[in-house]
Each structure stands twice: as C-alpha cells, then as structure tokens.
Write a structure and sequence with these properties.
Elements: H1 2-21, H2 31-47, H3 51-67, H4 71-87, H5 92-108, H6 112-126, H7 131-143, H8 151-170, H9 174-190, H10 194-210, H11 214-226, H12 235-248, H13 252-259, H14 269-276
C-alpha cells in the first residue's frame, strides 16, 4: 500500500516538473521548480523501489540543474542515480557512466578532488566486470592532478594514487603499478612525506622484479637514490639494493634473507607477498647487470655448472634485523579517505 501511494506521489511530482518546464507568452520556464520536483519524484520512486524511474528522475533533475549552471548540484544528483544503478539494479556499466558524467561536471568547476573521487567510484564499480576500463578510469583520475600545486590538491592526489595503485595491483598490471608508484613518489616528496617516499620506491622495485623487469627495477632504484627526497640511506633503500644485488649475483640465499627482512612490514601486504614469492627465476638479469663470476656465491654440492643451490653471499650478510616500518602504501588517513557517500 505504501509503495502504491509513493508511486502516485512520484507521478504527481513528475507532472509538477513538466508544468514547471513549460513556457509560454506570459510564463518562462521555472527550472528551479522543475529541478526540485524531479528530485522529489526521484526520492519517492526510490522509496517505492521503482529504481529505473528513480534513476530517470534524478537524471532529469540533473539536467535542470545544469541548465541553471549549477554543476555541483547536477553532479550530486548523477551520483545518487549511480548509486541506485550499482546497488539496486546491479547495472555496473550504467553506474560507471553516470559517475563519469558527474566527474566531468566537477571538473568543469575545477573541483579536482571531487572529479577524481567520482572516477575512482566509477572504476571500483566496474572492477569486477570490466577491469581494463576500470584501470583506465583510475589512471584518468590520477592525471587530473598533473598540474596540481596546492597542498590540499596534493593530499587528494596522494589518496587517488593510492587507490589506483591498489586497483592496478589487484588487476595484475604490475608494470603500470610500478610506474604509477614512481609518479606517486613525486607527490609524496612535495608533501614531505619521506616515509611514504621510501616505502613506495621499495614497492616499485619489488613489483618490477615480480613483473620480470630487473632493468627497470635497477634504473628506478638508482634514480630514486639520486634524488634528495627521502629514499637514499633508508632501510627501504638498503633492502631494495640487497634484492637487486641478490639477483645480479644469482644468490638464492641472499634473496631469501632479503625477503625475510622486517623492513617489508613497511609496504602493502600484497607487495610483501610478492616479495616473499620472488625467486631468481622471477626476473631475468641482463648480462650488463650480472655480477662478475668471481663475485657470485660458490655453487653447492653438484658444482657451478649444475645451477644448484647457492651459498650465502655478501648480500646475505645484511640479513640482520632491520627496524620495522609501519603502514601500507595505499593507506588513506581517515580525514582524507575517499568515501563512497561523500557527494551523495
């Protein structure tokens, strides 16, 4: 009974909205009234569980707000429609499209944080059904901050990068994840978050190695150590070098010691698991990076030609306990976290 009553009230609100939109010789369109009536209809349809009609009413309300040049209000209405499409109709693609439209509206009024948040919501909505598009949306969200200068924008960009890194890593796109982490480092450096710089650089090295990209890992580590932004001289830098040295020397014992180091507590759990799964077969080392034979560990048992187990190298000598870091690379502070209902 209540649903029937709410449906009737919703239809009446739609009729009111249509009247407001009519114009004549003596009457101009009442867009404010139309927007209000459409939003009222959307709420009533939602209460009556008529979700497709509610979504349509929200979209009409958003159109009226756009005509009034109220982009923020229009974006809020589109995000309300997106929530219904995602949660109640399980229409992930439609929900993502609505979030994208909302993002464009936020961007039009230079609200970069809200524009990025809407794209992140779109990406999370379709992560399970359209992973490539979800990754592309996350990368778009990060790109919005390329010219950001204000500290508030930089803080929001750090959160957006963290969300993007987590999604790309879940998607198995390791090369892109490592590259994005190194972009994130530049943001952390400008915010003077040196611990985040260090753990992100270590994470990038680990992910490159897990992706079979020794050369990229080595080059990235060298460039990071050359910058005065907080990586060089840290426990994370030392561990990154030990990992690279173990691969260069083909030192299985040294690698085992490195991936057992307590410094791995500084990185995200997923990255720590990748590190502990590393073997010398994970990444082929180009000849130019291989340590000279005299500096490699002596072969055990069956001789060097057998490719058997390796004795502990100088890298393993560093396996004493390191100070344990804290936090995860994608972690957001409570006040900065991108909540799904921030804009609804």
């Amino acid at each position: 009974r209540m649903e029937k009553r709410k449906l009737a009230e919703a239809e009446a609100a739609l009729s009111d909205a249509a009247k407001c939109e009519r114009s004549g010789w003596l009457k101009s369109r009442d867009l404010d009234g139309a927007a209000s009536a459409y939003e009222r209809a959307a709420t009533l349809f939602r209460v009556a569980r008529a979700y497709p009609q509610a979504i349509e009413a929200y979209m009409k309300a958003a159109d009226a707000q756009q005509a009034l040049e109220s982009a923020a209000a229009a974006a809020r209405l589109l995000e309300s429609a997106a929530v219904l499409a995602k949660d109640n109709l399980k229409a992930e693609a439609n929900a993502a499209a609505l979030y994208e439209r909302a993002s464009e509206l936020h961007l039009g009024v230079l609200s970069l944080d809200r524009a990025a948040a809407a794209l992140c919501k779109a990406a999370r909505t379709i992560e399970g059904s359209d992973t490539p598009r979800a990754c592309a949306l996350m990368l778009r969200a990060c790109s919005l901050f390329d010219d950001g200068e204000e500290e508030a924008q930089l803080r929001h960009s750090a959160d957006t990068f963290g969300a993007a890194v987590a999604l790309l890593l879940r998607a198995g796109r390791r090369s892109e994840t490592a590259a994005l982490l190194r972009r994130q480092v530049l943001v952390y450096a400008r915010l003077r978050r040196t611990h985040d710089v260090a753990r992100s650089e270590l994470s990038a090295v680990i992910i490159n190695l897990a992706a079979g990209e020794y050369e990229q890992a080595s080059i990235g580590c060298t460039k990071a150590e050359a910058r005065p932004d907080g990586f060089a001289g840290t426990d994370e830098a030392d561990l990154a070098r030990r990992l690279l040295a173990a691969f260069a020397a083909q030192d299985a014992d040294g690698l085992a010691a490195a991936v057992s180091d307590g410094t791995l507590a500084a990185v995200d759990n997923t990255v720590a698991l990748l590190a502990r799964d590393l073997t010398l077969a994970s990444a082929r080392v180009p000849a130019a990076y291989l340590a000279p034979p005299a500096r490699r560990p002596a072969a055990a048992g069956s001789g060097a030609a057998s490719g058997g187990g390796c004795l502990a190298s100088s890298a393993a000598a560093h396996a004493s306990e390191q100070p344990v870091g804290t936090g995860d690379f994608g972690e957001m502070a409570p006040e900065d976290e991108l909540e799904d209902d921030d804009l609804t």
